Amino acid sequence: MRPTLVNNLRVLVPVKRTIDYAVKIRVASDGKGVDTNVKHAMNPFDEIAVEEAVRLREKHKDAITKITAVSAGPAKTADVLRTALAMGADDAIHVEIPDNSLGGPLEPLGVSKILKAVIDKENEKEEIGLIIMGKQAIDDDASQTGQMLAAILDWPQATFASKMEFKGKLEKGEKVQVTREVDGGLAVVETSLPFVLTTDLRLNEPRYASLPNIMKAKKKPFQKLTLKDLGLEDAAKPRLETIKVQEPPKREGGAKVESVDELVSKLKEAGRI
C-alpha cells in the first residue's frame, strides 16, 4: 500500500546534460547533428528547477522529506546529477543509456515514459508528490517533456512558472498558486498537489555549488538503472530521424539610406516588397 502524503512531500527533479550554453555550436561533419565533443553542463532551466526544490525545502524544512534528482543518458550524465547533489538534492537516479544504443537521441516522449517508470518504481518506497523540471532543454528547445509527463501521470501541470506559492500545508490535495509568463503579461493559475511544475528563467537564480558541498555530494546515495530495469527497451527508441542539419545563412552587410523613398526603392530592388 502506498503511503499517503500528510505534510510529507518528496520532490523529484529531472535534469539533463546539454552542451554548455556558452559554447559556440558547430554542425557535425556528417551534417546530421552538432559537434558534441565540447564542454557540457546541466541544462540551465534544470538548474533553476533544482534551486527551486532546495529553496522550497529550506522554507518548509519539516514538510519535505527528500529531493531526488533523476536523469537519463550515457555514463557522463552522472556529472550533472553530481552537480544537483552538490546544489542540495538528497539522492540521485541515473538511467544509464549507452551512446547511440537507441539509434538516435532521446525524445521528449521517451524521456516522459522513463520518468513515469522511475516514479512508479520509487513510489513503492516513498511517494513522490511534486515534480519540478525545466520548461525546456537548450539543445532541442522542444518544451514538451513536462507536459507529456503530466499527461501520462494524469496529474495537473503548471508550465513556464515565474513564481510558486503554497496556500496551505504541503499535503496531497493542498492548493498551490503559480504565476506563469504569457505573451504580454502574467497569468496566475491554481492547482493542487501532486502536480508537475516547469520553470521559467525568472523563477530564481541558481546558487553555485560550494567545494564542501561538492565533496559531500560524492557520499550521497546514487542509484543506477537501465531501460531493461524499467521495462522500456523499445519504448524509449526515437520516432524521428534527423535528415539534415545546417548553419543559418550568413548575414549580408547592410547599407545606410538617406530617406524613406530611398529605403522603399532599395526594398523593391531586393524583391522584399
From TrEMBL:
<dbReference type="InterPro" id="IPR014729">
    <property type="entry name" value="Rossmann-like_a/b/a_fold"/>
</dbReference>
<dbReference type="GO" id="GO:0009063">
    <property type="term" value="P:amino acid catabolic process"/>
</dbReference>
<keyword id="KW-0249">Electron transport</keyword>
<feature type="domain" description="Electron transfer flavoprotein alpha/beta-subunit N-terminal">
    <location>
        <begin position="30"/>
        <end position="234"/>
    </location>
</feature>
<comment type="function">
    <text>The electron transfer flavoprotein serves as a specific electron acceptor for several dehydrogenases, including five acyl-CoA dehydrogenases, glutaryl-CoA and sarcosine dehydrogenase. It transfers the electrons to the main mitochondrial respiratory chain via ETF-ubiquinone oxidoreductase (ETF dehydrogenase).</text>
</comment>
<dbReference type="GO" id="GO:0009055">
    <property type="term" value="F:electron transfer activity"/>
</dbReference>
<keyword id="KW-0813">Transport</keyword>
<dbReference type="Pfam" id="PF01012">
    <property type="entry name" value="ETF"/>
</dbReference>
<dbReference type="InterPro" id="IPR012255">
    <property type="entry name" value="ETF_b"/>
</dbReference>
<comment type="subunit">
    <text>Heterodimer of an alpha and a beta subunit.</text>
</comment>
<protein>
    <recommendedName>
        <fullName>Probable electron transfer flavoprotein subunit beta</fullName>
    </recommendedName>
</protein>
<comment type="similarity">
    <text>Belongs to the ETF beta-subunit/FixA family.</text>
</comment>
<dbReference type="InterPro" id="IPR033948">
    <property type="entry name" value="ETF_beta_N"/>
</dbReference>
<dbReference type="GO" id="GO:0033539">
    <property type="term" value="P:fatty acid beta-oxidation using acyl-CoA dehydrogenase"/>
</dbReference>
<dbReference type="GO" id="GO:0005759">
    <property type="term" value="C:mitochondrial matrix"/>
</dbReference>
<keyword id="KW-0496">Mitochondrion</keyword>
<dbReference type="InterPro" id="IPR014730">
    <property type="entry name" value="ETF_a/b_N"/>
</dbReference>
